[in-house]
């Protein structure tokens, strides 16, 4: 992988700095989100009426997540940043409580843990996974601790490397117990993409009905070879699936659902639903 440094667009779209440490290339950002109606809570228990004698309900309408993340990273460490796909998937989760309520959920390549934190507002149990490198596991734990007031699920943080499908017995147990798999912004390198598809193949090769939700952003580049703008990482993801003749049903979800987090929901964002046709 290249040593070229990258910075997420989220820093300019939705980033209220709570604290920063430029020496360590890290900051804690405050991400404001609108609470869906089913999460609204009465703020003041005192009963009040308006001039028409209608009951006034003073409700908290927004929430905020405190997320520690890197300001910029090399390509292989982009999981230490926050990307648009995580917000898109978080929006979908908040807008579809009936899908995620009381479910056992696994997130693959969770990065800073934002999507897992949102999922834990609804699910029964959330297992948040990523590689055990450059302090990512510890970072996820700190972010869960910072946002404990939103956590309603039992949560676990475990190591999972897309390039190593020899899982621990504990991780295997959690995957076996889970019916929903999440992944956001994990398509950025050919080897990682191939490893991700191998991981999904192992998870979906089961008699247990599981649904995978993958959020990503098509990043277009102009190539001389194609004389056109192409999205190489997205195309590599589709190629990896196609060449394996996997018995998957892949649906693209319309992303025209309500937006709860503040970010630029560009047309290049994609949300996919994947499941095994045999289930």
UniProtKB/TrEMBL annotation:
Superkingdom, natural source: Eukaryota
Matching Pfam families: Methyltransf_16
Full protein name: Methyltransferase-like protein 22
Organism in which the protein naturally occurs: Cotesia typhae
MF GO annotations: protein methyltransferase activity
GO CC annotations, alphabetized: nucleus
């Amino acid at each position: 992988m290249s040593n070229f440094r990258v910075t997420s667009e989220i820093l300019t779209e939705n980033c209220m700095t709570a604290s920063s440490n430029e020496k360590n290339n890290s900051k804690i950002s405050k991400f404001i989100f609108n609470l869906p109606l089913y999460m609204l809570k009465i703020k003041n228990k005192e009963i009040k009426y308006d001039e028409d004698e209608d009951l006034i309900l003073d409700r908290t309408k927004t929430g905020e997540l405190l997320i520690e993340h890197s300001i910029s990273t090399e390509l292989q460490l982009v999981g230490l940043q926050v990307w648009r796909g995580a917000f898109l998937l978080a929006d979908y989760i908040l807008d579809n409580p009936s899908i995620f309520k009381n479910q056992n959920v696994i997130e693959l390549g969770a990065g800073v843990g934002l999507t897992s934190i949102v999922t834990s507002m609804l699910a029964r149990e959330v297992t948040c996974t990523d590689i055990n490198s450059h302090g990512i596991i510890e970072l996820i734990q700190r972010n869960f601790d910072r946002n404990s007031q939103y956590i309603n699920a039992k949560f676990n943080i475990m190591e999972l490397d897309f390039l190593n499908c020899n899982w621990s017995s504990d991780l295997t147990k959690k995957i076996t117990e889970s019916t929903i798999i999440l992944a956001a912004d994990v398509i950025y390198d050919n080897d990682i993409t191939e490893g991700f598809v191998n991981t999904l193949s192992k998870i979906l090769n089961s008699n247990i009905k599981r649904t995978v939700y993958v959020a990503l952003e098509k990043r277009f580049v102009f190539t001389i070879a194609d004389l056109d703008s192409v999205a190489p990482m997205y195309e590599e993801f589709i190629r990896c699936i196609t060449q394996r003749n996997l018995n998957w049903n892949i649906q693209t979800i319309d992303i025209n659902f309500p937006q709860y987090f503040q970010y630029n929901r560009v047309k290049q964002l994609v949300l996919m639903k994947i499941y095994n046709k045999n289930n």
